[in-house]
């Protein structure tokens, strides 16, 4: 796809979902640093997300998180979003913040707690119905901290049972995206620690169960783009939770730690057909702006994904294939690196102007005065965070 | 299974397979240090393996590796083994040591090389027929060193095609065990890097395709016993290549680096029914005695597996279940650790005497004079190694 | 030191310090699960620590953490401890929980914030004077999340300046223990990421600056016992923050994740003279009992350290030296493993009875009714945690 | 240093040393794949190195490795190099490929073997004298595979003794560069596993002992640029062995696995004054072209270092400092990323033309016919490799 106008067309269609919780305060177990201008309500989070779309043009949806974004009237929340020029995207479940979940939610040894957790998941499907959402995101913190603490296999049985119940409840145009994570907050064994475990569960359930790849949830050295290529081949890649990390699940801005890795991932997405709208691969951000301004951080993140995508689209795939087939290691790598080394910022600036946007989203956002305004408006009340 | 005599019965039935190549010289890319008394032929390797069985009583089979153990008459080789009191176990394939395989074997971009590799795999099934072997072990070094070097997805297509052809060729009582490995010798992407990839391929092929877990082939932090429990639940655990590591695929003696991990693995095997003969889980060693004497090293390794198994069998599963179900984290962990902290060496010494063996296999082996004899007998000729 | 009575004498003298914060609530960024019976004041934390000493006999001191244990009258706090049969040990500083420290404390680009942080450190030396403490524990969360965020080298200059100021303030019988940590909460660069950095700073300052090894603060694969041996050889090992981990800084109970590693560490301590009282190596616990009862968890942890120490002391060092010097790899390893595989629980039970204690500290603690009592007594008020 | 002509001047002065062994065959423990046109003698390796300099203009020296490059007349070898337009750089020692070194070289428990190893190191200083070399590179594979195998501390004593003897022997204008490595070929404990250990030894000896950073020798997650900045601040950074890795010591082409990391390293070099000639930081490649053509691979590697250096030099340090000092996380990171995202290939092409070189070194090398010629000329004889 070397034709610049075709590349631009593809980039124009891109949709990157931002998460409502990225606009609230976040931190580590050591400290949540309070920031200025942080939204206090789900509506204000959506307002902030709308700014990201306003200046980038490619972030039309915002994911919500229940109960952090619990409201009485979800239809009204959806209308609020539309009013701001965006839509509600995935509904994210939360079965990790109740004292009952200390030893697990859907895999808890106690059946009453499992039932409570399942009820929450099903409630989230109700909310999907109300807001018109396609994707239910399932992340389970379930696991154990000590060898012997609970029965590894029994927990899989319980996991399978809960997933089947959720699957059953999904509507025709709905699906769930099943996340996996190596560790944290469980420190010995996580019930869904890797893509293989999520894949195996999804495979048994059917096409509405898909795997979601959070780019910060792997063991050191894991080749994430391999997983992407493999899942696309199997028709089981539901989407991404994008972020970046140097160490563990650091939740830094996507592309900040290893921009070359992000490019390799986007290349496999394009290569495997995952960029085509009909495959339904969801491109979502899931980050924590612990020390940087949040809206600005989201804009930068969206731009990072755009840049990696542009490079992946520009790659000369015919030349690459020719070099690969002839076994020319250095030439194949050179074609690959040529795309990566291209400075795509001018192309993206041009594209934005064609889309009626400012070529520099960060500058435009800063000039808009939005941040200064919300710092004033949101002085009082309780800033949103992971707890609320 | 707290009844000591039942534990002993179970331990008496244990079968740990040693690999012919462990008796030859091995090393790192930096140096293969030559040792004394190293076998020069497949027959001499079997002679050494027979010593391990002679003193431990639980190592009745020896795995062969083709072409390192290529002979003209495989039936004669099998007879030689029987003559020494052992049998030939798994047949290990080798598609990584021919100059043709520089860019891969079954996933090579060149179809002629893929064909050559497949022919070797099929030849190994012929050898299985000749020696009466049940298990074909498939390890592929296939992968790439540089991003872009080859097409990740096309290589999966080629892998699937080769595996299907091998599967087709298997006899009714034969199966293949598909290994995975994170890296080495491929340094960017390995075509089967993790259990999920091996599992997905095996699942499509059917019950004669099973996953084998090499305990040194994972990313740092991987919870191996989880994989064991998961695969047993899926009926897809074919067996183990046991060894241990502090860093990468160090191939140290099993249990040397993390004896607690080995215990946890053996516990999940017992818990998941993998110790029952009918599940067909193969317990194989795959190690490199780079700096230690090889027969002695194998005896020690077999003993390490025995000790971990004994502890796993002794674990008070009723007490564990009760603690787990009541959510008593510390009590459950304590029951687990009690089994691990038990010194099972006296029990095993007793068992050996009941089996007509010396209670201390290492002392008995040293006293036998075998090593001194082969040092003399094998002075001339070419010591066996990975290359031959 | 194979003489059992000598080993017992050594074990009788052991002193393991427990941390006041281990008795309060802790958790991950996802959730702090509230437990029952948690202390509400520094005094109640000391009460709980005294229970650990009461039943183990080897935990006579408790570390405090400022500001979590801030009181008006430190002499009174010290008297309270003595009244309960324990003493106050190390004073732990905290320059990571004020909003001012978002971009660092002593390495913050803003000199006013650096001054504030330094003032806190100096205040902690005042508290040491008041409670009669020898050790000041310095852990800095300082670092950066993004490449370019701050100047790596300038931050070292600022670190050196702060450390020098603290060193200068120390009394003749006081010292500071300088901690290092690979990551968390900083996710790109930590200002003191490894033992080399702490060592280099301490070396320049003099003998009252010592390195403390937190066993959970290393990169995957790091050989911690090497660091212990190296620092002891250099006279720079100040002590330990014991805990264990499978992944990152999981802060599990010491010995829970890798008991063999704990044994290897204790062996190097004994080998390097670090167990002799005059070397001043401090054995401290630093753990988070996120899901298990806290006092019980501390007792178990103390016992784990005791068991590893007993094994290290029992090791036949003459036999080990002989095997090492003759280059007998397997014999040397066998001597090492013999000590590890010994079940030292009977020896420790015997020792406890000789010390007038119950042979089973956990059973004795459970039978004491202490937990049930504090659950009642501490129903109201604010449970202590990392924030208070 | 935003002034393009100043940047070009700096780039013109760059000197990147290539290693003689990169031109010979290399591989993994599984297989050394033979390539065509591989040199058979030290002289031919120098011929190949000269090609890299010919087309890049910044690779004027070639490191030698003893005994792989052992010749009778070192003065003649130096003259041969000069004749080809290059010079001999660092002398690399090898005390890992003799059967005597199975349990170590300078830290071997056997004093006779230690003496033998030391003699080799001293012989290498003789060679330095003969070829006019400034740098002696010391890498020790010394370590142990099993806990207890040898005494950790005694090995440090032996290491210190050997290093002191070598230091003593160095001429006034000579120095040694002391390498460290986490693991391989030692799999439990390496005697110099990290920068801290090398640094501590070098510090005691004096200014002629410097640390060398091999970019592939660290634990996962290690922040290498931190080490670079720290060592430069201490005046102890002797140089680099450049290569790249996704997993362990993969020895891929520098910049191939993580080009952003290479940029960050080069930025810290520039920031810390390490790019100034007087600091004496040596920029060396140490790679294994297992599957790619070797001369071509070296050219590409040199270009990768050049590109990272150009970006580091172009970084707007005033803007960076301003953002850092004001605590503007996102702006500081943006300035940093702007430099990285710049496509410096046009600038480097321009520079090459100014230097009288072809703008595209790879194309020029391919067009030269050199490879085709040596494939013919070197058909017979024994290709050079790690063993010879």
Biggest sheet: strand arrangement of chain A: 1-2-3-4-6-8-9-10
Strand content of chain A: 5-15%
Nearest-integer average pLDDT of chain A: 97
CATH class of chain A, anyone? Alpha Beta
Radius of gyration of chain A: 21 Å
Tally of contiguous helical segments of chain A: 14
In CATH, the architecture of chain A is Alpha-Beta Barrel
- Percent helix among the residues of chain A? 40-55%
Find the structural class of chain A using helix and strand composition: alpha/beta
Shape estimate of chain A: globular
Under CATH, the homologous superfamily of chain A reads: Divalent-metal-dependent TIM barrel enzymes
Quaternary status of these chains? homotetramer
Question: Which regions of chain A are unreliable across 5 or more consecutive residues at pLDDT < 50?
Answer: none
The number of distinct structural domains of chain A comes to 1
> Count of DSSP E strands of chain A?
10
Distance between the termini of chain A: 45 Å
**According to CATH, what is the topology of chain A?**
TIM Barrel
> How do the SSEs of chain A run, as a string of H and E?
HEHEHEHEEHEEHEHEHEHHHHHH
Q: Give the largest chain-chain interface (CB within 8 Å).
A: C-D, 59 and 60 residues
Largest sheet of chain A, if any? 8 strands, parallel, barrel
